[in-house]
Amino acid sequence: MGVSSKDAVLLNESIAILVREHETEAKHGENQKSTRGFICFPGLIFAHLGMEAGLQCNVESPYLPLQLLAH
What global pTM score does this model have? Predict the structure, then answer.
């Protein structure tokens, strides 16, 4: 996912894929009628791991509230 290799481009591409898949599921799939659809937790976790490794997440999405990671 880019964290262990300290590859910010790979990390952001991976998070973007997670968020896109989450958005599709939130709008058209099982999460459409569930509170699980509000936040892409896997993407948020990888963004946090990246931040801990000194990598910045540049993915912007309402499903990825990066402000929750602010210390």
Answer: 0.89
